[in-house]
Amino acid sequence: MQHQKLATIEDVAALAGVSIATVSRAINEPTKVADETRRKVTEAIARTGYTTNAMARSLRMRRSNMILILAPDVGDPNFSNILVGLETEASKRGYGVLIGNTQNDPARETDYLRFISSNQADGLILFTGHLPYGFGQDGTEGRLPPMVAVNEPVPNAEVPFVGVDNFEGARIATEHLISQGHRRIAFVGRSSAREVNRLREEGYRRALAGAGIAIDPRMIIDGDGTTESGRAAAELMFVRDALPTAFFCVNDATALGVIISLNARHYDLPRQFSIMGFDDISFSSFVTPSLTTMKQPRHRIGEAAMELLLELLAGEKPHEQQVLLRAELIVRNSVTRVG
Amino acid sequence: MQHQKLATIEDVAALAGVSIATVSRAINEPTKVADETRRKVTEAIARTGYTTNAMARSLRMRRSNMILILAPDVGDPNFSNILVGLETEASKRGYGVLIGNTQNDPARETDYLRFISSNQADGLILFTGHLPYGFGQDGTEGRLPPMVAVNEPVPNAEVPFVGVDNFEGARIATEHLISQGHRRIAFVGRSSAREVNRLREEGYRRALAGAGIAIDPRMIIDGDGTTESGRAAAELMFVRDALPTAFFCVNDATALGVIISLNARHYDLPRQFSIMGFDDISFSSFVTPSLTTMKQPRHRIGEAAMELLLELLAGEKPHEQQVLLRAELIVRNSVTRVG
DNA sequence: ACCATTCATGAAAACCTTTACATCATCACA
DNA sequence: TGTGATGATGTAAAGGTTTTCATGAATGGT
């Protein structure tokens, strides 16, 4: 019932009648060992059921083949979808994936660093948008481990970033609305503090400018990206009595808020108003009307980020400080032709 | 820029003017060392920035303080919500959490076992509903590591299980429908092969029996728990022309299918039909009408499972082979009073 | 027939801890 | 003063690898 003692490399060596060095080589550098010897070793391994003790190996090699993933909210679907890509790529390359849920708690962020400083993880994937608390500030400066930011870039730090091209995506989204005949297009979710919101607004502006449409400041509404902020924004437009024919929302959560507000006022969607989101989160296809939106290539973001991190670990200089992947237009029912 | 050599226990010992054994004790069994010595050691640790090398420690102690979580789909929201609970509890007890995405691929399942056999993980949390491929079959029999199943029990194996009480939850759900005056209640999602479906059907039957309502076999429709199966089931009922006043669906995905079908037929929900789900997945509050359902206590399931696993690891015999937590009735708009 | 390579293997060091055991001082008690 | 117990510390082994260096055999070229 209990964990019996496992076979070690010595057991294998004894059974195969060679030294442990040879066994090690037969496993890790098969070409460096004679065919006949290799055969004997392989058989001995099979007979003993030997597996290399990863602890001993890591201790000796000074690397664990583990990657620590630090995220503020592990339950967030955005996180978990990127995680799939991260895990797939890591596993393909023989790496394991360790997860840390920080809940934006500085204490927990610091705590998780022990995995790095104790050699339990070789590299770091950051979802948090900032360096873990306890890093870059004191003398530990130069000791930053290899890391890659995902989802949100890390400002004021030289951390490579992999994410979606928000500017380009927002431009495509807005152009789609324009191509459907819309001229009065609102942007819901302005927030100068948030990089993501800023970039998406920028793409929106570029698309309008490109189509020769003047920008009406009343069409740009503040919002922090929550559903509630979307609801409030729509209400505000009714109060102001400055109505668009289409809402481009900074994200799907915001779009949902707008839809809730419009439904509550008994408008017939999408006939009377078109709504465009961004992200393609899971409920977007279920809401009525189902949401036309820009899909983030989450799986690929994860893969690309892990790929980049592993390059860094291998000592290669990264080709670029930033990898931006294109979002994909998903046409559903919330946007219709107008005019 | 590069990872400089880290301080070891010897550096600390030298600086504090004691032996490495004393340093180790000062860290792990502080009471066994004199106050003054402990002070010197603590200071030396601070000065050197020493952290114990987890690899060396694990090698010596024959345990890694890591738990491997094996799941068929890491992207599944059901998984990630339970994961939060697992991670929280593990981290609280000083354990790290390693995740493995198997995609139900036998090769990947086997592959992940190396974490166990190579001592990189001390225990296992199983989301898969079966032993990892490559276990229990050959001679490796008795060597099963400590593990706990979650989400789905493992049939024919003595693996402790933590999950929701499906029977009880289904009973409560059905009783809620009955309390709203419904007598003709359909059960959508019968499947004798699936344990979950079987238990929920059982709870449904018990509730009807308890209320003295005869069971009409035409009210029980097959389904595998997918949205499509829910849609098909509803259509089937129209073909058969045997209509209920309420649908109790084996899960929310199925309920969504039923809603889609009824909406397509332009019924006015929930006035003409009530719909009850089970699980409370994320979109349930967004669909129209928003879904009345049974909420799985996912966070607590995770915590309880990890708690149980850590007890097992500590060598304690588990009090029970199965921990069932109660689902909570979430009242939204898809169920109304009738008659 | 001799020398220089090349190739296959082995011995032993190093990676960094924890801990069993030994040592030594101190103290209480008779 | 002598004895036994107690408490603090040190020495050294053990945990299982990888890898450097050394050794010896075989090979190839002259």
Output the keywords.
homodimer, 339 residues, alpha/beta, Rossmann fold, 4-stranded parallel β-sheet, DNA-binding
The assigned CATH architecture of the largest domain in chain A is 3-Layer(aba) Sandwich
Task: Identify the most extensive interface between protein chains.
Answer: A-B, 54 and 54 residues
The CATH H-level homologous superfamily of the largest domain in chain A: Response regulator
- The helical percent of chain A reads 40-55%
**For the largest beta sheet of chain A, what order do the strands appear in spatially?**
2-1-3-4-5-11
Report the total helices of chain A.
Answer: 11
| Overall residue-averaged pLDDT value of chain A | 92
Topology:
The structure is a homodimer of 339-residue chains.
Chain A: H1 9-16, H2 20-28, H3 35-48, H4 54-61, E1 66-71, H5 77-92, E2 96-101, H6 106-117, E3 123-126, E4 147-150, E5 161-164, H7 166-179, E6 185-190, H8 195-210, E7 220-222, H9 227-240, E8 246-249, H10 252-264, E9 274-276, E10 293-295, H11 298-313, E11 322-325, E12 328-330
Parallel strand pairs in A: 1-2, 1-3, 3-4, 4-5, 5-11, 6-7, 6-8, 8-9
Antiparallel strand pairs in A: 10-12
Helix pairs in contact in A: 1-2, 1-3, 2-3, 5-11, 7-8, 9-10
The structure holds a DNA duplex (30 and 30 nucleotides).
